[in-house]
Structure formats: C-alpha cells, structure tokens
Write a structure and sequence with these properties.
about 425 residues; alpha+beta; oxygen-dependent coproporphyrinogen oxidase; seven-stranded antiparallel sheet; two-stranded antiparallel sheet; 13 helices; about 50% helix; elongated; Coprogen_oxidase_aer_sf
C-alpha cells in the first residue's frame, strides 16, 4: 500500500482551512432547511385543518341563508321555468317551414290529379315540421302498393320519440270495387239519389289522414283527414262519374283543458272556413260534436273542431280550393299548441289520466268511426295504416273515478256539454 505523507509544515498550514470549510458547510445546511410551522410542530396536518375550515364556512353560509336571507318565491321559480319552456317551443316555431304552396286558380287539370298532388305535398310539409319540433329522430317512410296494383300509399310514422309517443301522416290513393257494406253506408247517409240497387260500382279515392299522440299529457292529441271520392258504374264503358264528394275535418283531443288552446284551434279553423263560406264553420262544428260522440260513455272524444262528409253542393274546383286551404291551415291550428305544451312538467297521475283518455280514443275509433270501418271493409286495404290512429299505450280501469273540482273533472264537464270556442 502506498501512503502519501504530508510534511508537518504543510499539514499545519492546511488544517485551519479544513475546519473553516466544515463550519461554513454546517451553517449553510442549517440555514437551507424550511422553518417548521406551529401545527407541524404540534403534529397536526395543515390539509386537515383547511378542509375543516372550508366545511365550517359552508355550514355557516348555509345557515345564514336559511335563517336570515329572503327566499325566492316558489311560484316565481315555476313561472320562470314555464318561460324557459315556452321560449324553447317558440324557438322551434321560428324554425318551422310555413311557406306553403298557393292554390292554382288557373289550372285545368282534373280534380283527381290535383288532389293526389295536394295530399303528397301536405304530407311532406307536415312531416318536415313535426321532425323540427321533435328534433330527435326522423319519421319512417313506408311506401306500399296494393297487391292488385290498384293503388298505393305512403305511411309516415314516428314512434317513441322525445315529443311524440306516436305520430302518423298517411296518404293513400286507391281504386277498386265498392263492397256491399260501403254501399249500404252511403245509402244510409242518403249520399246520392243516383246510386241504384243491383248495380256494381267501383270507387276512386285520394286522401290524407293524420293522428298525433304526444308524450306530454299537457299536449293535446289531434286528428285530421281530407279526402276526395268518385264512384263509377263498373259496366259503363265510358266510366262516367256517377257521384263524387269531398270529406274530412280536424278535431282536438286534450287530456287537460287549456281554454286558450281550444279557442286558438277553433278560431284558426273558422278563419279558414270563412274565406269560402261563413256557414261552413257553425255547420261543420255541429257535425263534429255529433260525429265524435261516444254513446256508451255519453261524452265526446275531445273538444271538437270541424267535420263534413258528402260535400258536393258546388263546383268541384271551389270545393277543392276549400280542402286545400283547410289542409295547410292545420300547421297554424296545431303546431303552436304542441310547441307550447311539449316541455311542460307533469306527474305520474297526469300520465295515468292521459292513458285513460286514450282508452276512450281507442273505443271510438274501433266502435264508431266510419273511416276505420271503411278501411277494414275495403278489399286489399292495409290494416297497418288503417290502425295507425291508435295510440301506442292506453289504460282501462274498473270504475275509475276522479276528484271533484279537479282538472280532470273540468275536462269531463266540457266533453259532456258542447261549448262554443270561436
């Protein structure tokens, strides 16, 4: 092993310097350590203290608010919620396409062709606007043809969406032999003195039928349909039209009564009727109240609207103009109502009452409605489209009762006694 031996003289000179360097290093090390706080010295975690302080401040603030500060009025809170809901609906309304085609006064095209174009245009327009209001899913477009190639239809259906439990906008253009049941129905209505016994007839019909069942019980169900019908003798080589007529109407079926909604719906229909004949609205309103009556319940299906059948008392062109205007006025009559009500709050009890009322809707359609019977008795008719009008869900309760002076009772009072709305 090799050793380095420093001379004593050199060692004596270096030792004081080493001691001084060691002392300076010790002082630097002590000065670089952080100062320990009081809590740390006492063994308390500062983070715990901060969390406790924050919780205490929150409790004090909450207690101060609860005991000493003024609270917002619950009625004001609900009012503000309604304003937000209405604003949402109104914003959707501004997005709707209300640019409808105008009636062509100069057209010489046969009514059959014009009616077909009209129902297709109205279907397309209405489906577009309902999709804007719903804003979650598109309609299902189902085009179908009769097996005998004597007609076609387009069924547009929206189910289980955010706004609509079920909405259907159906168009059908069909021809074929008139069944005995249909013929007897026409005779019972004294539709035409030109219909003979022991003669076979063929029919041609074009129509649009719409039923909308919203999810929200505060939003009303609605129905409308407009159609044109022609009858010819089967053995007539010239196929002259024996008789023809227009039929249709629109009616509102709320589960909860908002009188301003009823007034708006009826006034819109009246305004459109008055453009053509001021006798139309009162006459067709009375027809509607009588037609949509459920005898075994002694009440009407809804708060009415207009209804007419076998309308052929003036030139076809004038009647078609009336049908044209009534069809497109439906947008104005109904869409603002659904926009206003579709986001309202409701309870489980409200929903159950809606289901009870939809049970009444089913009863009328299957037992009393002539249109449903006509479709089911038509050979080659499409049952899926005919029963489109039925809701997805309904409810029947044994001896169901409602509280006196309730909102439900208010509706029933109107359904048992006809009212004038416009």
């Amino acid at each position: 092993m090799i050793r380095f031996i420093l001379p004593k003289k050199h060692f004596a000179h270096t030792l004081p310097k080493l001691r001084a360097a060691t002392l300076r290093s010790s002082r630097y090390s002590q000065s670089s350590k952080p100062n320990r706080g009081f809590l740390e010295i006492q063994g308390i975690n500062p983070g715990v203290v901060m969390s406790f302080s924050f919780a205490a401040a929150t409790i004090i603030a909450s207690a101060s608010y609860y005991f000493f500060m003024d609270k917002p009025d619950p009625a004001l809170i609900e009012y503000n919620k309604k304003l937000v809901q209405i604003d949402m609906g109104e914003r959707r309304l501004t997005e709707l396409d209300m640019n409808f085609p105008s009636f062509d006064e100069e057209s010489t095209e046969p009514i059959k062709g014009r009616m077909e174009k009209f129902v297709l245009a109205l279907q397309k327009s209405l489906v577009k606007n309902l999709e804007i209001l719903d804003n979650t899913k598109p309609f299902f477009w189902d085009r179908w043809e009769r097996e005998d190639s004597k007609g076609y239809g387009i069924s547009c259906i929206l189910q289980d969406s955010k706004i609509f439990e079920k909405a259907g906008v159906n168009v059908s253009i069909m021809q074929g032999p008139l069944s005995k049941q249909q013929l007897e129905s026409m005779k019972s209505r004294k539709q035409s003195n030109t219909i003979k016994d022991n003669v076979d007839y063929d029919f041609w019909v074009a129509g649009i039928s719409t039923v909308i069942h919203p999810v929200n019980p505060m939003a009303p169900t609605v129905h409308f349909n407009y159609r044109y019908f022609e009858l010819t003798e089967r053995d007539d080589p010239e196929q002259k039209v024996v008789t023809s007529w227009f039929g249709g109407g629109a009616d509102l079926t709320p589960s909860y009564l908002f009188e301003e909604d009823c007034a708006h719906f009826h006034q819109t229909l009246k305004d459109s009727c008055d453009k053509h004949d001021q006798s139309f609205y009162p006459k067709f309103k009375k027809n509607c109240d009588e037609y949509f009556f459920i005898p075994h319940r002694n009440e009407t299906r809804g708060i009415g609207g207009i209804f007419f059948d076998d309308l052929n008392d003036r030139p076809k062109k004038d009647l078609f103009h009336f049908i044209f205007d009534m069809g497109f006025s439906f947008h104005t009559a109904y869409l603002p109502l659904i926009a206003k009500r579709m986001n309202m709050s409701y309870t489980k009890e409200n929903k159950e009452w809606q289901q009870i009322r939809r049970g009444r809707y089913v009863e009328f359609n299957l037992v009393n409605d002539r249109g449903t019977k006509f479709g089911l008795h038509t050979k080659g008719g499409r049952t899926e489209s005919i029963l489109m009008s039925l809701p997805l869900t309904a409810r029947w309760e044994y001896k169901h009762s409602i509280p006196l002076n309730s909102s439900e009772q208010k509706l029933l009072d109107v359904l048992k006694t006809s009212r004038e709305w416009a």
